[in-house]
Amino acid sequence: MTEKSSPTLIARGQFSLQRKDFSLSTAFEVESRGITGIYGASGAGKTTLLRCVAGLEPRVRGQLFVDDVCWQDSALGVFMPPELREIGYVFQDGRLFSHLSVERNLFYGYRRRGGRASRIDPDQIMDLLGLKPLLGRMPRALSGGEQQRVAIGRALLCAPRLVLMDEPLANLDQARKEEILPFLDRIHGALSLPMLYVSHSLYEITRLCDQLVLMEQGAVLAAGDLNQVLTRPDLPLIDSDEAVAVVNAQVLQHDLLYQLTELELLNGGTLWVSAKAGMIGETVRLRILARDVSLSLDLPSESTILNVLPTRIEALSALPGSPFCSAVLRVGEQRIMARMTRKSRDRLSLTEGMRVFAQVKGVAIQPSLAVQPS
Amino acid sequence: MPFEFPGMGPLYLSLQLALTTTAVLLLFGTGLSWWLARTGTRFKPMIEAMVAMPMVLPPTVLGFYLLILMSPDGAIGGFWLRVTGDTLTFSFLGLVIASVLYSLPFVVQPLQNAFEGVSVQSMEAAATLGASPSDAFFSVAVPQARRGFLTATVMGFAHTLGEFGVVLMVGGNIPGQTRVVSIAIYDHVESLQYAQAHTLAAILLAATFVALFALYFLNRRWRND
Questions:
Q1: Disulfide-capable partner of A66 in A11, A115, A354, B143 (CB 3.0 to 4.6 Å)?
Q2: Spatial contact of A110 and A150, defined as CB atoms under 8 Å apart
Q3: Which residues contact B26 (CB under 8 A, 6 or more apart)?
Q4: Partner-chain residue, chosen from A88, A93, A113, that has the shortest CB–CB distance to B121
Q5: pTM greater than 0.95 (yes/no)
Q6: A67 contacts A10 by C-beta, under 8 angstroms
């Protein structure tokens, strides 16, 4: 973790909250750049943490500083009410006001708070989210995806110092999710707003976030750079069937004949991905699922798999009772993971420190959205 | 108006009473209903029961106790007499007080129902968007409860217009002061003046129908939009 009151932090705080069936006790920091994901199982305290930051949990004890302004200090009896905290909160269920048109919903917070700040341009936000065609409609006449876009716009128009998103896609089906994600990408790219993004979907987290806070049973288990946390051998994420790594790569060339793009991992070899992506020289973000990576002891000579990377096993991990195990692999300056059966591990006598070849079957690429250097 | 249309004085008085009572009830009833809709106090059922009592009690029972309380020897009436020199019983003000109590449940219950339909989630959203609690109350809770306000206004007004027993007990039958339309009709019938009784009764019948029709009509429109 970075040291306190570093200029790259927008918020730092610590909370403790005791309820009958749940307790939260946590310290956390939020980087002033990019999106910080908060990931954990349901009941881990992700939403409660956001509500504490927003001031919606008046009984929480602790401290919270945002931009070095004290929002809460229980020891001194300071508790800023939610309406004075400069946040933009996007709720899981949208919570549009049913009696107001889309336009009046959007400008509800702008009139009260956002309009005072010159850093917000309503036209830009409405364009980014494609909201202008919806302005005259009533919320109930909108699809679920449209409602969430309006809710996001309404929060951004408050000119927040910190955006809090609580599973904004959880109530939508996969198609609607895919419809909203590009809008979130655009916000991420166009507005450099610090954001806390709560999700229980590793897909959304790895797609959007730069930093990751991992929560378990009301406490922060780990926090830091996204890929560091995703691939840390001492954390439970690597043992998941969904285990995934996020790496940066530079676009080397496009092969128009085969419809492929060649990318270079930072000192880690090159990868081919299908489709034309990015501009030459551009840094892009790649998501590599552990189950899409297999290992072999020798460089395979005849194989349909295009991408083979030389790598070293940094760690091996298996949960007791599981037929599977995970390997954390060093690829240049970054780490990816491979998921295999324990039987395969034993058949190849894989051990930590061993040099092997990683065959990468699938790579998802996200143009023009690189992981921000930490 | 009462002088231009002979016999219409009681109608005019009833309108005045109903308007005043409805205004007072909307003012205080709104606060009480909001509190009842949000509070977690264990006294809530007790307070709800007290609010609902005028709906089931015979008006004469309520009127009897109010008469005792407001008479010059009673706790409230005596105090009022010492402070202002006027008696509360058999006065317009006494009627207003009685009517407010009598019509209280007809205003508080629809409002409380409507406020209970305003979600905590909406109020939280308003707070995160920079609205203070009172701002959120007027910009979110009141508009979302507008059907409750419509019902409360019409029911409070119509119910006060139609009251008989409480008025008779507390206000008596003083022309221009406490002789409201329901009592005037009774009087006319007692003295066999059926023509006058017909006129007032027909006006009341028509007015009540128009008010209730408007209520149900608007209620349906507001639900649909």
A1: A11
A2: no
A3: B107, B149, B152, B153, B156
A4: A93
A5: no
A6: yes
Query: Which two tokens mark A66?
Result: 């945002």
Contact A108 B225 (CB under 8 A): no
pLDDT in tens, B153-176: 999 999 998 888 899 888 888 888
**Lowest pLDDT segment from A273-287, A343-357, B95-109:** A273-287
Whole-number Å distance between alpha carbons of A240 and A10: 31
Residue in chain A lying closest to B129 (CA):
A109
Task: Please report residues of A whose CB lies closer than 8 A to that of B128.
Answer: 54, 56, 82-83, 85, 87-89, 109, 155, 158
Q: Is B129 on the interface with A (CB under 8 A)?
A: yes
With CA atoms as reference, report the closest residue to B96 among B174, B19, B187. Answer: B19
Q: What is the mean pLDDT of chain A?
A: 88
The dihedrals phi and psi of B164, each to the nearest 5 degrees, come to -135, -60
**CB contacts, 8 Å: B140 with chain A:** 97, 99
Residue from A328, A305, A304, A324 nearest A316 by CA? A328
pLDDT in tens, A62-101: 999 998 899 999 999 999 999 999 999 999 999 999 999 9
Report the distance separating Cα A297 and Cα A314, nearest Å. Answer: 15
The tokens 């790895």 sit on which residue? A206
Cβ neighbours of B131 in A, within 8 Å = 83, 108, 112
Q: Which site among B128, B132, B144 would you substitute to test the A interface, given the most A Cβ atoms closer than 10 Å to its Cβ? A: B128
What pLDDT, in 10s, does the model give residues B178-221?
A: 889 999 999 999 999 999 999 999 999 998 899 889 989 988 88
ipTM for this model: 0.84
User: Is the model's pLDDT at A56 over the cut of 60?
Assistant: yes
Dihedral sign, CA of B186, B188, B193, B197?
Answer: negative
pLDDT tier at A338 (50, 70, 90 boundaries)? very high
Torsion of Cα atoms, A174 then A203 then A179 then A274, to 10°: -100
Note whether A89 contacts B: Cβ–Cβ < 8 A: yes
Sheet of A69-73: strand order equals A23-31, A9-18, A61-66, A69-73, A78-79
Distance (Å) from the C-alpha of residue A100 to the closest C-alpha of chain B? 9
Edge-to-edge strand ranges of the sheet holding A324-331: A293-296, A355-360, A307-317, A324-331, A334-341
Of A133-137, A210-214, A270-274, B51-55, the least confident = A270-274
Cross-chain Cβ contact B128/A93 below 8 Å: no
